[in-house]
Amino acid sequence: MRRMRIAWTAALVAAFAVCGLIWAVSEVQAGEKVQVKFLHKWPQPEYKPYFDEVIAAFEAENAGIDIVDEAVADEPIKDKLRILMGSSSQPDIFFSWCGEFANKFIRANAVLDITPYLDENGGEWRSSIMKAGLEPFALGGKNYGVPLRINCKYFVYNKEIFAEYNLTPPETWDQLLAVCETLKKNGVTPIAFGDQIPWAACHYMTGLNQKLVPDDVRQKDYNFKTGEFTDPGYVKALEMFKELNDKGYFNEFVNSTTHNMAQQSWLVGAAAIHFLELEEFVTIAQDFDPAGWGFFPMPEIAGGAGFKNYIIGAPDGFLVSANTQHPKEAVAFLKYLLNDENAAKMVKQLGWPSPIIGAVNANTAPDYLVAGMAGMEAADGMALWLDTDIHIKISDIYLPGFQEILDGTITPQEIMKKIQAVAKEVQSLSE
């Protein structure tokens, strides 16, 4: 495995060198034009045309600026960013998750403070963005990023299956377990789940940690300088997650099942429930009559020490490199990407929930997206994705640990002891 990682890293470095060469050649060819390098994470054919169209329209209105974009998929971009941000080949604008993922770049002075741009003209740009979209990209009272999307997580359920067994959407965790037991006894797989890539389990743990651990303790632990992870709520969260698998409430072979495979099994009625992001609703609506499914947030847990009425999710968006030679042009493009017209276009064309105020409405979005956004707005707060909200060294223990727990090769207590040891180790790190 170590040799594979070394080879993969070498390949990435070589690829980035080629990208740097391409960007350099483009700069020469651009002549007097300002070139802004833009890195995002949507190379898929169903998504990239949106960005191509926005870039083309921006360049048509700003003849002196070339936007040179590169799109790298979800998992590879994490490695690419870690390498690029430690080099001299940084893009001017780059995608980032919020929370600790962005904070490590901010603490390294690699990100431009865009507070003045948000506040100019009487705070016109700031006032166009939901507060819940901006806050997770702030640190030390300053703003460093802007959100493209704001996302959250719901359990979707098959209404026909629920009706057949006289089931209603659960409001508490105990009710969820009772629903799962009824389905299992009747030969129905309760929850479709695929954890081949363990971010899927991470989303369960995001919510369970938030509901079971006091918020001040959780915030202290997620800060790598002060984290200890000794609260019993963390073990309880892992035990509750493990129980779903041990009782047969998930499908079989979860660690060799992808999230997309699980989604397909839910779509064909092989399972009654599936845990999905709001942005994924557009995909299932293409194959499933919207009247045939509904959704509910992760249920509350009796006696849980965390804040009530929180929802799992986060915005993601863009940061500007502190080393950019063209900050005004980079910010101008971000303002254009996030303006009312393009936010509405994104909602309509891609079905993604936008944090731009007013972008999601009855004219731009289907009922399920409007309702999903309303549920997000009604929540008292958001629990950010665990793997982007904790230090990478801790995440590197946590995520594989979920798969080991599902395999039965490690206990919740054992995995938390490992995490406590790593948490103590990273406290001494400068980053």
Structure description:
The two termini are 25 Å apart. Helix 1 crosses helix 3. The protein is globular, with a radius of gyration of 22 Å. Helix content is 50%, strand content 15%. The protein is built from 19 helices and 11 strands. It has 2 domains: 205 residues, 3-Layer(aba) Sandwich (D-Maltodextrin-Binding Protein, domain 2), CATH 3.40.190.10; 203 residues, Periplasmic binding protein-like II (D-Maltodextrin-Binding Protein, domain 2, 3-Layer(aba) Sandwich). The strands form 2 sheets. Strands 1, 2, 3, 6, 7, 8, 9, 10 and 11 form a 9-stranded mixed beta sheet that branches. Strands 4-5 form a two-stranded antiparallel ribbon. It has 431 residues and is α/β, with parallel strands linked by helices. Strand 1, helix 2 and strand 2 form a beta-alpha-beta unit.
